[in-house]
User: Fold this.
Amino acid sequence: MKKLDMLKKNYEFKNVLNKGKFYRGKYVTIYINKNKEEKNKIGIAISKKIGKANKRNRLKRLIRESYRLQKDNLKKGYNIVFIWNKQANILNNTYKNVSEDIIKLFNKAGIINE
Assistant:
């Protein structure tokens, strides 16, 4: 399986966060900015205040899997940064809740192909 195209450098995150539009959901906030490539790149940021490493890694896996299943339905040429909302309860989150939230945000942003 091919690994997802990820944003890794600090300046890449800063560029998307400063110049991109944001959409806030119940669990996740996404920042979207156009790039000059024919593919989407994603970045995931979860604060240490959310919990210990195992909880943060679980949230990253949920977000990554939700994106992976939706990536074929998305328009190409965007940088997307996912940020977990601090107010969201991490104990009751499920894959279904996170996935529905991300799909709603993509619809709100208008980057889903129809």
User: Anything to note?
Assistant: The chain has a mean pLDDT of 92. Residues 10-108 form a domain with the Ribosomal Protein S5; domain 2 fold (CATH 3.30.230.10). The chain has three helices and four strands.
